[in-house]
Amino acid sequence: MLSSIRPLVNTTPGKAYGVLTRGLHHQFGGAAATKQLFSTSSGRHKDNAGVLLQDKDNGFGFARSNPRPPKPRSKGVTEIRGPYYSVMGKRYLADVLETMGTHVDGLKFAGGSFSLFEEKPLRELIELAHSYDVYVSTGGWAEHLLTHPDVESVFDKYLRKCKDLGFDVIEISSGFLSIPADDWLRMIDKVHSYGLKAKPELGIQFGAGGDTAAGELEAIGTSDPGKLVNMGKKFLDAGVERLMIESEGITENVKSWRTDVVSKIMKELPPERVMFEAAEPKVYNWYIREFGVDVNVFVDHSQIVQLSCLRHGIWGMADTFGKVVSYRPSS
C-alpha cells in the first residue's frame, strides 16, 4: 500500500522484534527460516494464503461454507476497532491478524486514541496492518479539532501528520457538534486533497459516540432519518467511498431498535457504500440475517471470529444457525 514503508527489524542479539517466524520449531530449533514482519508486500502470505475452511485438499473444504471474495473487498467489508476499550500493541495486533487477518479489511483507532501513542509503536501498528492488506482509519477525532480557534490550520496539520504516519482513511463525525453540510463537504474535499479517503460518520442521535446513557439520549431526541440519507447522498456525490452509520439511536442505547431507519438507509443509499456500527453480537447477527453476508459492519476486534463464523454460515445464533447462505456460482 505504501511504497515508502520499510521493514523495522531489531538486529540486537537475542531479540526477534520485527521478525515473523513460521512456528515454535523455527523459534527454538535454531532454524533461520524467518521473514520480516513489517512489509507492505503480501508475498509472505502467498504460500499459506488459502483459508483452511475453504481448502478442499488439506482443510475443511468438505464442509459447506459461504465463499468470500479476496481482499480488497467492495462489499462484505469488516472494519475492527483497535485500541480503545483495551490496549493494543504490535504483538496483540499480530495475534489478531496472524489468525484472522483474512477476514479483516480495516482497522480503526477510535476517538483520538492514536494521539496517545509514542510515534514508533503507532507506526509499527499501522505498518503491520498494511502488511495484511488492512487499511487503517482514524476515529472521529476531527470533531475535537473543530473546537479549536484556528481550525483550518489545525486540521491541515492533522491531515499532514496522519498522511505521514500512514493512515489511509480519515473519519469525520459530528455526533457532538452541529456543523453545516457545506462545511462538512469542505472538510471532505480537504481530506481528499491530501490523498486520503474521507469517511463521514452519520447518525440520527445527537450526543452519540461517547457511551452516553440511553435516558440522556432519549431526552435529547433524534433527527429525521431523511436528513441522514440526504447528507449521505451529498457525501457520496463528493467522492466518498463509504459512509459509517453510528449505532447510537438506532441499535445502541435505545429502548427498541430503529429498524425503520436501517431499512430506509439500505433502500435509498447503495448498500456497498454504507457500513453499520454493530456494538454487540446480537446487532451484527441481525444485520447479516436481514441483509445477508455482504453487509458492511464495524465491530470490536474481539468479535471478529464470531462475526466471520456468521458470514461463512458455519455457526450462528438460534435465528441464524444453518440459515446464512449465498449463491455464488463458480466462473
TrEMBL record:
InterPro entries: Aldolase_TIM, ComA_synth, ComA_synth_sf. SUPFAM superfamilies: (2r)-phospho-3-sulfolactate synthase ComA. Belongs to the phosphosulfolactate synthase family. This is Sulfonate biosynthesis enzyme.
